[in-house]
Amino acid sequence: MSIYTKPPNAVPASAPIYPTNGTDTYATHQSHFGLGGYTELPTLTDLYNIPVREFTTSDGYGSGRRKYGMIVYVMSEDKWFQLRPRNKSTGEYLTLSQFEALTPVEEKIIVLNPTAFYYDTDENLVNGSGDATECWTELCLSCGNLEIIDVYASKTFTTEDANKIFHFHTGSSSNLTATVHTSCAAGFNLAVNNVGTGFLSLPGALGVSTVLDARHSGAFMYKSASAVYAVGRL
Question: Which fold has domain 146-231?
Answer without folding.
Answer: Jelly Rolls (2.60.120)
